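4.2 Preliminary Data

To establish feasibility before requesting continued support, the project team ran the inverse folding procedure on a target of 423 residues. The structure was first converted into the token representation described in Section 3, and no sequence information of any kind was made available to the design step. The complete token record follows.
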């Protein structure tokens, strides 16, 4: 994501860009193709409403001239107020746009040594071991990492539509989600099965760089079985909460699992919130306990992979380059930005820093605070995604939460507009 955005930004500005990509010759544990901007987890870039943090970030990025978001808008699938996209069409469109650009030379080759000329490392969370080995001499001894999980995808025609029903929460917007309603007994049977299931073990991910693996998950990507182990009620008060999802008969289920379409043809669905590290046979057995999925055909099983990121505040300058190698910049998830949209922003930010000399963004903006996160040295540095909690408070107190978020968004966009106008 970050690399694709950066490449298009520089190329459209007239720079000659060499874009290195090791796939498909060298693959990763999560990718399936050699296409650029391949989405490996959810197919959602989250909400587009400016009353949400992700929606505000998108609005800010549009003001800053983002390249990928307009392309994503050409590949949307129904998902209420969320920007969900057909992952295959999106990756194919980005790949074609890059391949056809006269100022971009695509080099299908793994980078194993640090280049000496102006370079952006935008390898995402799945940086190859060879490149990581080349970076290690410039990193602190305590290298940071976390594990990420992706959710299964099932065939639409294998679902039982006598049970599954279409509805969006509180009937807001189009009914783009399918819902699997649980009775009390079905819910606790599902939780019990998750607690008893066999999962992947740490030794499967050990290598010369990570001899002692301690499974730590970024909270938004915590596997469903790990959530279930926190308590029997965790899921139905979290990702499976039933409020606003009453059945067509008007009854409220004990819990609800939502399915989000993967493509415009509505031929496949992603199990929302069901990121998992369960073994494949366990996934097939347990997820078929979900009402309406008794005969589900799995098009992709969930999986676990290592996400690598660096301690940016300790390692990088405020321009996100290495002080010892000032021509070497970093962008996207490897710096500690978490999420698709945030990664795209990382690529956009690298262009603004290098090509325009940008030194800061307003502290009232999500984009500005994400950049500050990459510079703020804390004891336990963790990946960060867009959220209103990182913004400074309003001068006036607003009790209504929705109105408060709108006020924060309006302030951010106004401040960003002033900065852009003055520059």
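Position-by-position output of the design step:
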């Amino acid at each position: 994501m970050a690399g694709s955005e950066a490449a298009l930004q520089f190329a459209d500005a007239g720079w000659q860009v060499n874009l290195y990509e090791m796939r498909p010759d060298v693959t990763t544990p999560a990718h399936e193709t050699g296409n650029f901007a391949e989405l490996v987890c959810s197919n959602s870039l989250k909400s587009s409403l400016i009353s949400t943090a992700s929606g505000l970030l998108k609005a800010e990025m549009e003001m800053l001239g983002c390249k990928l978001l307009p392309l994503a808008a050409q590949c949307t699938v129904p998902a209420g107020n969320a920007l969900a996209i057909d992952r295959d069409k999106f990756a194919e469109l980005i790949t074609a746009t890059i391949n056809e650009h006269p100022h971009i030379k695509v080099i299908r080759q793994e980078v194993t040594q640090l280049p000496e000329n102006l370079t952006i490392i935008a390898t995402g969370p799945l940086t190859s071991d060879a490149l990581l080995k080349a970076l290690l001499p410039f990193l602190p001894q305590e290298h940071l990492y976390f594990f990420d999980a992706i959710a299964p995808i099932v065939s639409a025609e294998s679902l039982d539509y006598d049970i599954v029903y279409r509805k969006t929460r509180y009937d807001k917007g189009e009914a783009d989600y399918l819902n699997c309603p649980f009775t009390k007994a079905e819910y606790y049977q599902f939780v019990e099965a998750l607690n008893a299931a066999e999962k992947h073990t740490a030794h499967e991910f050990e290598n010369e760089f990570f001899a002692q693996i301690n499974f730590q998950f970024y909270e938004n990507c915590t596997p469903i079985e790990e959530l279930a182990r926190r308590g029997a009620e965790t899921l139905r008060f979290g990702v499976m909460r039933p409020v606003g999802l009453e059945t067509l008969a008007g009854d409220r289920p004990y819990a609800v699992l939502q399915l989000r379409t993967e493509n415009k043809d509505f031929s496949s669905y992603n199990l929302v919130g069901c990121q998992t590290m369960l073994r494949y046979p366990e996934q097939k057995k347990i997820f078929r306990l979900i009402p309406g999925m008794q005969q589900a055909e799995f098009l992709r099983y969930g999986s676990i992979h290592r996400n690598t990121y660096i301690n940016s505040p300790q390692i990088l300058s405020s321009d996100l380059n290495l002080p010892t190698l000032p021509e070497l910049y970093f962008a996207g998830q490897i710096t500690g930005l978490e999420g698709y949209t945030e990664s795209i922003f990382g690529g956009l930010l690298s262009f603004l820093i290098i090509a325009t000399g940008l030194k800061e963004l307003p502290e009232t903006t999500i984009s500005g605070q994400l950049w500050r996160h990459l510079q703020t040295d804390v004891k336990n540095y963790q990946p960060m995604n867009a959220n209103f909690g990182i913004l400074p408070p309003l001068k006036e107190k607003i009790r209504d939460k929705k109105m408060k978020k709108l006020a924060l968004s309006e302030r951010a966009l106004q401040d960003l507009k002033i900065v852009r106008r003055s520059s």
